[in-house]
Amino acid sequence: MSLIHRSVIDAHNEPLLRHVKNDYEHLGEQLARRGVDIETITAKVAAFGVAIPSWGVGTGGTRFARFPGLGEPRDVHDKLQDCGVIHQLSRATPTVSLHIPWDRCSDWGALKDQAASYGLGFDAMNSNTFSDQAGQAHSYKYGSLTHADAATRAQAVAHNLDCIEIGRKLGSKALTVWIGDGSNFPGQQHFRRAFDRYLESTRQIYDALPSDWRMFLEHKICEPAFYATVIQDWGSSYLAASALGPKAQCLVDLGHHAPNVNIELIVARLIAAGKLAGFHFNDSKYGDDDLDSGSVSPYRLFLVFNELVAAAHEQVKGFDPAYMLDQSHNVTDPIESLMASAEQVVRSYAQALLVDRAALDAAQQANDALTATRLLQRAFQTDVQPILQQVRLQGGGAIDLIGAYRASGYRAQMAEQRPARAGGGGGIV
Ligand code: LRH
Ligand code: MN
């Protein structure tokens, strides 16, 4: 399962080489006047990576319909090949986050080897107790880890232990637990008992974690439950992660909050508490829209990275977040959207590295609000594209991500090799 031929990337880069060189030198001069060494930023950007969600390379859908694209991946091996192309061109997505059972396969060793052949590793595993599988003994209609029925909870715990076993074979070091458990009517669920059942179930999963693993608890304000969700907000997630122990932390999916919630403040709180697991990056205008990262509110994404870079700069204890995309691509080629989104995430990181931290500290100390906020805006308004292109070029990737991908004809080749999948019903994958 080959990727794009080297010569195609080189041919597409060739006419752009001198532009990148000139733009990079020019930006270098600008940054030097600001006391910033461009090579320091470039080195940090080159070391930065964001994981691809395996479920993101297929065309997503909504509850109303899914309109499949050409050359859809048929199984986890096709998904991995597409992830390989994304990393080959972007040089920014060295790991893949799998979802079980969507990515179940017969030979995990072969999957690991296939990933390694593309220079890919595996990030956090994702369990799924928000849908029923064929032949499943107990339905998750009324919940999973918090279900009132002990046998259903035990089934959900067993599934999470199975995900850990698969992850160990693949070299993953974390398990993300998102559950849709909750209620649609006042009175339908006893809030405190449901939370106690959540702790009882996640305790069993926590105790089964290998010593060097982490458990990421993912909160979400609503959907599929529309009155109350057991792990509805960062507070519930933090209470649970604190009760479980040091290996349990809180994962922030940017789309899982009410509109206008200050997510960068939540990030700062979790950093201070040593409980920031990491992120599911995406963007949204209304609900859990799972849109491309930075496509609606790029300044919000930048402000999140401003908190992350500040924490790294201040060497905050236990600060080691995992970065993952979590998106659904309904109207674009998923590979293009994932590359563009990875680039937006890396861009926000690079811009946050340009914040003059000493001047910001001084402005904050002096209550000089305008200077403080203009220091952030200056970093955000710096065009760091030459650094992103330089890093890709140095890493053997594509200077013009989408241009090189389209020139490769990869999607058309996959349309040949992979029979079309029927469209039809709703659902994100
Ligand atoms: C829930 C969620 C979760 C995944 C799923 C695909 O909305 O963000 O992270 O398991 O999407
Ligand atoms: Mn998510």
Short overview:
By secondary structure, this protein is an alpha/beta fold. 47% of the residues lie in helices and 9% in strands.
Key descriptive features of the protein:
429 residues; 11 strands; binds manganese (II) ion; binds 6-deoxy-beta-L-fructofuranose; alpha/beta
Question: Could you please describe the fold and organization of this structure?
Answer:
The chain is an alpha/beta fold and 429 residues long. 47% of the residues lie in helices and 9% in strands. It contains 16 helices and 11 strands. Strands 4-5-7-9-10-11 form a 6-stranded parallel beta sheet. The protein has a 3-stranded parallel beta sheet with strand order 1-2-3, covered by helices on one side. A two-stranded antiparallel sheet has the order 6-8. Helix 9 links the parallel strand 9 (248-253) and strand 10. Helix 3 crosses helix 11 (334-353). The two termini are 22 Å apart. The structure holds 6-deoxy-beta-L-fructofuranose and manganese (II) ion.
Contiguous helical run count: 16
The hetero compounds bound to this protein are:
6-deoxy-beta-L-fructofuranose, manganese (II) ion
CA(first)-CA(last) distance: 22 Å
> Which structural class do you get from the secondary structure elements?
alpha/beta
**Could you name the ranges where pLDDT drops below 50 across 5 or more consecutive residues?**
none
Whole-number mean pLDDT? 97
How are helices and strands ordered from N to C?
HHHEHEHEEHEEHEEHEHEHEHHHHHH
Rg value: 22 Å
Summarize the main sheet. 6 strands, parallel
Helix content: 40-55%
Task: Tell me the overall shape.
Answer: globular
What share of the residues does DSSP label as strand, in percent? 5-15%
- The largest sheet has its strands arranged as 4-5-7-9-10-11
Write down how many β-strands occur, each being a DSSP E stretch of 2 or more residues: 11
